């Protein structure tokens, strides 16, 4: 729906109250990624100021649930509170501990932090951050590389060209096998004359294990997000199992308690399969989360809303208007889950 129309509707007296009433049995699961003290040009960063505004809004209008409370409500083992919210954060970046965690403590809200254990253990950058750093560190103005027999050339003279190049390569990386992606990153770094020791950035570091243990002891729910954040649908079953089970074992070893919740890396419809979900079940998780909204789901495909700085989009999702739009789309026979155009590069036949 058009942004201007969203703003008009949200400002209409009674609109948000009506939406919350009509969607009172819809769980709003929020998905955050990165945090900053000040404004950032990167879309997934949310400032401390905006986070405070979000949490204030949530506490005013919504009951706050843990994943376990969502589970018991879905199983009809607890009374259903109207329009509940579950707050989740992916990956385990250090800015969660430094910027967001104090805010959550002040508001007495206990979020879920889905941790990528290899990111924490090995202190290396996640692949999309490596790619960004490579573009930032090079002095060259043109990139040549090959992928699947195709030669690609990109201009990277200006900040705008680097940003477009990053998006182009990142889209390619999202839909290739993990080993291909690692090889591609190495090839790009070599072609741009960026040595491996220069692929580092303090702003993209993970939390330490000590910080994760501290947060868990103070109520943050720790969930699993694989060991190395691969696209699970692009791995063979043994590697998939190692990524999922290995992450769970490492977290439970560090936390000395059970880790019951999982979320799929990237979390789009191309990124996991029925086989993946079966491995998650067999590993002993109670449920798992995806990264988009869908009207049909179960405990291992629980949908979420991605949160950004955009206040209008945040209010639109929280009041339930986005969920109502999906239901109306179903009534008129339009797609209701994230489609191929959104997850660019996805082809059903590629997912085994």
Automatic annotation (TrEMBL):
Matching entries from InterPro entries are given as:
Glyco_hydro/deAcase_b/a-brl, NODB_dom, Polysacch_Deacetylase
Q: One GO MF term, please? A: hydrolase activity, acting on carbon-nitrogen (but not peptide) bonds
User: Which superkingdom, per the lineage?
Assistant: Bacteria
| Entries under PROSITE patterns matching the protein | NODB
Signal peptide span per the entry?
Answer: none
Biological process (GO) annotations held by this record are:
carbohydrate metabolic process
- What does the UniProt entry say about where the protein is found? Secreted
Q: Might you report a single GO cellular component term?
A: extracellular region
What are the record keywords, sorted?
Answer: Signal
NodB homology domain boundaries: 83-352
List the protein's name. Answer: Polysaccharide deacetylase
Query: Which species does the entry assign this protein to?
Result: Desulfofustis glycolicus DSM 9705
Please spell out the taxonomic lineage of the organism that makes this protein.
Bacteria, Pseudomonadati, Thermodesulfobacteriota, Desulfobulbia, Desulfobulbales
């Amino acid at each position: 729906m058009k942004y201007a129309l969203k703003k008009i509707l949200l400002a209409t007296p009674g609109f948000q109250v009506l939406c919350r009433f009509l969607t009172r049995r819809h769980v709003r699961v929020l998905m955050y990624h990165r945090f900053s003290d000040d404004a950032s040009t990167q879309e997934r960063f949310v400032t401390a100021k905006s986070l405070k505004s979000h949490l204030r809004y949530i506490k005013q209008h919504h009951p706050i649930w843990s994943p376990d409370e969502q589970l018991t409500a879905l199983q009809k083992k607890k009374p259903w509170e109207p329009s509940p919210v579950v707050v989740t954060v992916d990956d385990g970046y250090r800015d969660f501990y430094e910027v967001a965690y104090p805010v959550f403590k002040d508001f007495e809200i206990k979020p879920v932090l889905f941790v990528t254990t290899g990111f924490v253990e090995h202190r290396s950058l996640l692949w999309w951050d490596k790619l960004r750093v490579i573009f930032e560190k090079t002095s060259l103005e043109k990139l040549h590389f090959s992928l699947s027999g195709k030669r690609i050339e990109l201009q990277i003279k200006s900040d705008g060209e680097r940003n477009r190049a990053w998006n182009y390569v990142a889209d390619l990386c999202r839909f290739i096998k993990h080993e291909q992606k690692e090889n591609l990153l190495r090839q790009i770094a070599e072609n741009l004359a960026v040595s491996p020791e220069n692929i580092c950035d303090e702003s993209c570091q993970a939390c330490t294990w000590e910080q994760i243990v501290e947060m868990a002891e103070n109520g943050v729910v720790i969930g699993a997000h694989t060991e190395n954040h691969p696209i699970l649908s692009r791995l063979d079953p043994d590697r998939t199992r190692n990524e999922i089970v290995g992450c769970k074992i490492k977290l439970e070893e560090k936390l000395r308690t059970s880790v019951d919740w999982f979320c799929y890396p990237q979390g789009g419809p191309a990124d996991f399969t029925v086989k993946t979900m079966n491995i998650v079940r067999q590993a002993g998780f109670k449920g798992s989360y995806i990264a988009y909204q869908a009207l049909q789901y179960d405990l291992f495909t629980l949908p979420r809303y991605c949160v950004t700085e955009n206040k209008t989009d945040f209010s639109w999702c929280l009041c339930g208007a986005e969920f109502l739009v999906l239901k109306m789309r179903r009534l008129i026979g339009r797609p209701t889950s994230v489609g191929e155009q959104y997850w660019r590069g996805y082809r059903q036949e590629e997912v085994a």
